[in-house]
Write a structure and sequence with these properties.
Blueprint: H1 11-27, H2 43-50, H3 56-64, H4 69-74, E1 76-82, E2 92-95, E3 100-107, H5 113-116, E4 121-123, H6 129-136, E5 153-156, E6 165-171, E7 177-182, H7 188-191, E8 194-199
Parallel strand pairs: 1-3, 2-8
Antiparallel strand pairs: 3-6, 4-5, 4-7, 7-8
């Protein structure tokens, strides 16, 4: 008589667990696909982008705020003082023909304007300084500028008292040369309150 081989009692439980795990694996949904890797920009593509023509909007934005190179080159500012010793703090300065020039005159003295006022008067090339100064003496109401010789004046400030200042702007003459400037208050030019503005073309290498 053949013997009957017994199935271990734990086998059904093992099979049930295996089927359960297999079913869970089938029921799980796949995750979202991974994004594709970013494509590297080649040198050729960068060159093509650089060669793209400027749009109309970009051109308008650039034109709205241009770099004023001419103003940076042409502008010149000089601060000049006048004192009770009847001297200009800046006796000479140099500009280029046609250059925009700003002069700021300040009276740093302490004596009254009526006895020690100062102005800055730039004279045309070749003006007789002594003759102009003499003609200016009686014209206190015109800041010591002789009305009949105003055509010899390139630029001028009013007469300033102690602590006062004034700014004037003018265009330098196109003709090169040495242009005298004076304080036309009576007696001041003879005392040495004079200076020279030199108009000259600087070399391109400077």
């Amino acid at each position: 008589m053949k013997s009957i081989q017994r199935i271990p009692s734990s086998l059904p439980a093992v099979l049930a667990l295996a089927f359960s795990l297999t079913g869970c694996a089938r029921d799980e949904e796949p995750g979202p696909p991974l994004p594709p890797p970013e494509e590297a920009v080649t040198e050729e593509e960068e060159e093509n982008d650089a060669d793209e023509p400027e749009t109309e909007e970009e051109a308008e934005a650039r034109d709205e705020d241009p770099v004023d190179e001419e103003e940076e080159v042409n502008g010149a500012v000089f601060e000049i003082t006048g004192d009770d010793n009847m001297r200009f703090g800046l006796p000479t300065f140099e500009v280029e023909p046609g250059q925009d020039v700003t002069v700021i005159l300040e009276n740093i003295g302490s004596l009254p304007k009526e006895t020690m006022g100062h102005n800055f008067v730039l004279l045309a090339l070749g003006t007789d300084v002594n003759a102009f100064a003499t003609a200016a003496i009686p014209h206190v109401d015109n800041d010591y500028i002789p009305p009949d010789r105003e055509d010899e004046v390139i630029a001028a400030t009013r007469i300033l008292g102690p602590g006062e200042s004034e700014e004037i702007t003018f265009t330098a003459p196109e003709i090169e040369g040495e242009y005298d400037y004076i304080c036309s208050f009576p007696g001041h030019p003879a005392a040495g309150m004079v200076g020279v503005m030199t108009v000259t073309r600087r070399s391109s290498g400077e």
